[in-house]
Amino acid sequence: MLSGIIVWGGAGLLLDRWWDTRFVALIGVVLGLTVAIYLVVVKYGALPPAEGNGRTGSTRGGRGSPPRTQKGQR
Q1: Is 0.70 surpassed by the pTM of this model?
Q2: Which band of pLDDT confidence, cut at 50, 70 and 90, is reported for residue 61?
Q3: Cα 28 to Cα 3, 9, 16, 25, 42, distances in angstroms
Q4: Cα–Cα distance measured from residue 11 to residue 5, given in angstroms and rounded to the nearest whole number
């Protein structure tokens, strides 16, 4: 992430000196940080879906659901 900030901030600093402005370096730093965070999320962020039908066995309140019994049994 640091390299993205340095590279894009440096490019912004060079453009600032060439265009005689003061805000392009800040835009370059923010752009570098944003792209670096995006790349980290793309590479490490998504977890594979869980096995099964997607039900966790708990109710909305966080308590476990009652055990299922066959009809007529307790």
Answers
A1: no
A2: low
A3: 12, 4, 10, 5, 21
A4: 10
